[in-house]
């Protein structure tokens, strides 16, 4: 086993030959990693490679089965996340863990609120510190609003603020940018650079490779739980990195097929939900992939929710294949051939305690039926079929979906909806948290679906993805559609201009 | 039944089932008067009201809701039955009226929960008091006892010399229907999803409110059926019939491994819980344990039943962790080609 080595200051935090298993799954085997002050270090690997497990081991959530955690060169045992925090390690976990009924400020200061005399919580102080953090991150969130109802992106921003509120020597971030758009990412990176200048060590995970090259100096790669390499990014190309991660060359990331659009499959007319979005009209034709871009909070997700029926609309109409949908009725939308892959897989996409098989089966309860009973054989083969087609990495199809890695959970959500054979597919951040290899796979799938005559509406904060896959790009800004840009004219500049409201729409 | 969460619950079912067998064997061996067929038919007859209501209650708790007004609905049905009988109506007209009344009681609960978004615990504590109050207004402190004998005989009688009450047979039919409904139909499958994550269920196109409303209505219906059975079985319709029965039902259902947080459990477990509780209550009565003390025991069981499955699950998880010595291979991503 070769050890990563680097000259310069001593590592502030390190793992030496760490192994960790969950039942039959060996999530980490003999992994070593060193984090140096003043350096941003990337952790790369496919879904299920063990990145989050590594982070949880550093953070004291998991105890390694073998090997050591070293703090300033000394072996330490963290008995829980509290120990790691006390040692100056701040962690942003992959899945936001906010308390929905507490305010943003209370979430950020959970368990360590500034006190005034007699131990009373100093609400003024928590409020103003939180407001400061929000300003540093360049977002407009009221510290006193409850966490319930925050979009995934906003939740992630609160998690980031929480981590930044410590004076951390080590900042660990598990896919903090997965739901963020370009400008929020830029803000975050500004903050990270400032921390780096102050001498903090940063560990960063992202499936967006360009981000890794932007902000990191070194990268450690994992594959199937095993350490592959630790090296300087300088002089490496994205292809090199991908090869380390997947062990082979990757096909085209945006395998877009040319399709002549057919009839209109989804038609949204003058849709309005008061205070959320206004007068939104667009059409998606069979065979088309239409991108829906915009900043976090522009109302893209809200439009999708209303179209599918989980929220009601106040005015307007929606038609699928010429058939008007009932306001606020997902079951009729499904029956008409509409599918929505929602943005929040933990709360909306999946029942975490249920098996993979049954989660995929949930959308087939009306179709895999024999004499009024669930046809278990059909349910199982339908679930297996789609789990295999999307290359979900699991031990048994009967395992709870909550034990899968984040990216594999996302694949199960996709499987669940593709299994319905939709005519119109709305995907909200379809590749959030998905690794490059699988991302290409999902793109190929979307492209193939379009070629087969499915109308696809793709909401994505990943601009290259939108530009690479969409035939047309719709852009939303503050609840209104501000631009419709054909593929030929869609560039980062034109889309961002419309998204920030700078374009003459 | 390979679902991992289910298989853990199944383990708790087995525990309760085994406990039931042990209690029965011990009682046969050591409790005087337990084993004769008259006592056994008493045991079953006295447990049937709990069992009947436990069927829809299990479905409700799986879906993450609860109904505490069931005993009051039963009492109200009995009271209305008595009052109408005093008016001279035939029992054949009275029974359908009472059942419709039960449906209405359930509908009120269901609408308050699903339309107004109120927590079912609060709603049904309220209607528990309200329905009982109406029962008292309807019948006052009368006790109506002179129902037609063929009905009384059916509700209290047993098949020949055996210990099997007639009334057990329709219950078994209802049980079979409930088992199929919960464990084999899309409706039941959806209930587990609703209980485990209501939002995810809604995003999967499941009509959450409609299903819940239906459950409350069914619960009302079976509660009133139980109220009718109660009045005939004990040949007494009073406004305070079945008072406190909701405690036994909830205790039995939770004892049977139905998770109070929703999304977990099996009907088999719930029914085992019901008869375990029934057997214990029967033994306590034979031993002259006072009614008050019996309530204490039920309360303690209620607490234990919330704890028990959790402990069992934790043990199961710990065991699964230790079993990891020889891992089977994972499905692998394609092998490197370069
Ligand atoms: N609590 C757990 N119980 C069982 N298995 C687990 C648990 N946590 C992780 N695993 C398994 O360990 C492996 C590594 O998971 P991990 O979450 O570390 O992957 P990851 O690299 O973060 O992936 P992603 O990019 O999808 O987030 C996966 O196979 C996963 O299923
Ligand atoms: Mg992860």
From TrEMBL, chain A:
**How is it placed in the membrane, per its record?**
Peripheral membrane protein
Subcellular location as annotated: Cell membrane
Query: In the record, what terms sit under GO molecular function?
Result: ATP binding; ATP hydrolysis activity
GO CC entries: plasma membrane
Q: Which UniProt keywords apply?
A: ATP-binding, Cell membrane, Membrane, Nucleotide-binding, Repeat, Sugar transport, Translocase, Transport
Q: Has the keyword Magnesium been applied to this entry? A: no
What's one Pfam family here? ABC_tran
Q: What is its main location?
A: membrane
Q: Which residues form the ABC transporter domain?
A: 13-249, 259-503
Give yes or no: UniProt keyword Transmembrane. Answer: no
Classification via PROSITE patterns = ABC_TRANSPORTER_1, ABC_TRANSPORTER_2
What's the protein here called?
Ribose import ATP-binding protein RbsA 1
UniProtKB/TrEMBL annotation, chain B:
**Where does this one sit in the cell?**
Cell membrane
UniProt entry tagged with the keyword Methyltransferase: no
Transmembrane segment boundaries: 12-31, 43-63, 94-114, 121-139, 167-192, 213-236, 291-312
Specify where it is mainly localized.
Answer: membrane
- Any matching Pfam family: BPD_transp_2
Q: Which InterPro entries match?
A: ABC_transp_permease
GO cellular component terms given for this protein: plasma membrane
Q: Please give one Gene Ontology molecular function term for this protein.
A: transmembrane transporter activity
Provide the membrane topology annotation.
Multi-pass membrane protein
Q: Which UniProt keywords apply?
A: Cell inner membrane, Cell membrane, Membrane, Transmembrane, Transmembrane helix, Transport
Q: What is this protein called?
A: Autoinducer 2 import system permease protein LsrD
Species of origin = Streptomyces griseoviridis
